[in-house]
Design brief:
This protein has a domain of about 70 residues: Winged helix-like DNA-binding domain superfamily/Winged helix DNA-binding domain (Arc Repressor Mutant, subunit A). It is an alpha+beta fold and about 150 residues long. Helices cover about 30% and strands about 15% of the residues. A hairpin with a 3-residue loop joins strand 2 and strand 3. The strands form two sheets. Strands 1-3-2 form a three-stranded antiparallel beta sheet. A three-stranded mixed beta sheet has the order 5-4-6, with no helix packed on it.
Length: about 150
């Protein structure tokens, strides 16, 4: 695996907005109908590589951009995107759920004071000694979240 981030279509993720045609292609490739709301949320979500959002944050961005969409629709759409493999879902403390547009197997820093989630550079974490999964099961990926707090000042 290289240090580049790729989306669900295998395209290198870019730090710029995607065109509507690219979002339509992404949705169709995932076998999702490109509805108005999926396109609007996709335009917000699939712009920067490795974007980490909560449903509440994405909803606020959509409303601020003039999109008329309910929080329930945002949750439903994010879960559809997860089932289609377009985003990864990360539950933090059982109280907060983030959706990550970088679907590769990678780890995260979590800044506890402000709830910020950041990617850990590839190769910085090594996980050894995983247990053998139960019969008929396989490990799909390992989520590692390293929690951060501000260091005391000297």
């Amino acid at each position: 695996m290289t240090g580049q981030v790729h989306d669900a279509l295998g395209h290198e993720a870019r730090g710029m907005p995607r065109s509507e045609a690219e979002i339509v292609e992404l949705l169709r490739h995932a076998r999702l109908r490109p509805t108005r709301q999926r396109l609007a949320l996709g335009a917000l979500l699939f712009t920067d590589h490795g974007r980490h959002v909560t449903a509440e944050l994405l909803h606020a961005e959509a409303v601020a951009g003039g999109e008329r969409v309910s929080l329930a629709t945002v949750y439903n759409t994010l879960h559809q995107f997860r089932r289609a493999g377009l985003v990864r879902e990360l539950a933090i403390d059982g109280t907060r759920t983030y959706f990550d547009t970088n679907t590769s197997n990678h780890s995260h820093f979590y800044v506890e004071q402000d709830g910020k989630l950041m990617d850990i550079p590839e190769g910085s974490i090594r996980v050894d000694g995983l247990p053998k999964p139960p019969e008929g099961m396989r490990i799909s990926h390992v989520d590692v979240v390293v929690r951060l707090v501000a260091a005391p000042r000297d």
